[in-house]
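Lecture notes, continued. The same structure-token format from the folding unit now serves as the input rather than the output. Read the line below as a description of shape only.
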């Protein structure tokens, strides 16, 4: 039986090594080199070519190589009988907390402006709010959103959180569901998106939301590019509804050269690096789920197809 990795344009040799360091007997294929399609029972994918996964008659389960599984759920050819799971690791949580804290601090302390002023040899101090007067809103309070919200609250920021179902987090003002979205957004100065991408959350970062935020606020998107309506962001920035955007994810990645987001002072771009899955840290989870799938056991970190995460 074989475990197949499919991740176009990625060097997967470290993944193969990490799996073999746990169990050297696992037979591994790396797409597109597949020895025998009939032997493939488990695949690990990142942005796989759609419609590829219905070509394995004995496929039992598929794991995302990262925390998000939207790239698997959007493939309508994936047979219903195939279970979907993802990886979760303390390192993914830690990296996301670091990234969000770095972005929030840079915005709060005006470093985004000072870096630009360096180029112009301009000496100009700016006022900055204290954390207790800075209202940060986090959309999505799951494995990554909840620890990020807790961290900011512990540091004294005024934090609100919004999720599909009600959640309680100490020192965080939580809201749930569509009905409370407006109340959640109201007065938010920095809005952070950590939602899973589903039909209900696609395009949620739009002009209507931006207009409800604090005047000249910021958005930080570390979820998926499709959460954001690109044209609405450009409009909101150009009309001073928003002051800036800090983006790690984009509808098309790598972000094309001609994209309107490049070369704008008020958009900070990072190349989808907020939280990167490291092979050695999750190989044991993949091996465990591979073995579970083979023996018909329930998978860990299974994705609910209905909910979309
Ligand atoms: C990264 O975006 C992930 O889903 O792990």
């Amino acid at each position: 039986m074989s475990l197949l990795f499919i991740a176009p344009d990625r060097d997967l040799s470290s993944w193969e090594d990490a799996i073999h360091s746990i169990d050297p007997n696992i037979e591994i294929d790396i797409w597109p080199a597949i020895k025998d399609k009939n032997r493939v029972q488990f695949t690990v994918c990142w942005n796989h070519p759609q419609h590829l996964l219905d070509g394995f008659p004995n496929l039992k389960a598929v794991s995302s190589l990262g925390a998000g599984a939207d790239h698997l759920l959007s493939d309508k050819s994936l047979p219903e009988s195939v279970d979907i799971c993802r990886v979760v690791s303390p390192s993914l949580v830690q990296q996301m907390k670091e990234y969000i804290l770095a972005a929030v601090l840079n915005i709060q302390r005006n470093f985004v402006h000072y870096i630009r002023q360096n180029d112009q040899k301009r000496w100009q101090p700016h006022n900055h709010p204290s954390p207790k007067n800075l209202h940060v809103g986090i959309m999505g309070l799951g494995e990554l959103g909840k620890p990020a919200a807790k961290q900011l609250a512990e540091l004294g920021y005024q934090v609100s959180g919004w999720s599909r179902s009600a959640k309680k987090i100490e020192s965080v003002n939580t809201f749930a569901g569509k009905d409370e979205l407006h109340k959640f957004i109201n007065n938010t100065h920095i809005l952070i998106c950590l939602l899973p991408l589903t039909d209900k959350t696609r395009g949620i970062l739009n002009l209507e939301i931006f207009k409800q935020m604090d005047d000249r606020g910021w958005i930080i998107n570390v979820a998926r590019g499709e959460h954001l309506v690109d044209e609405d962001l450009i409009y909101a920035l150009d009309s001073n509804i928003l002051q800036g955007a800090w983006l790690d994810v984009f509808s098309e990645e790598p972000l094309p050269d001609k994209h309107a987001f490049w070369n704008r002072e008020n958009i900070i771009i990072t190349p989808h690096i907020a939280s990167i899955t490291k092979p050695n840290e999750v190989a044991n989870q993949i091996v465990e789920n591979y073995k579970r799938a083979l023996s018909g056991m329930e998978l860990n970190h299974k994705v609910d197809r209905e909910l979309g995460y």
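Point for the exam: The chain has a mean pLDDT of 96.
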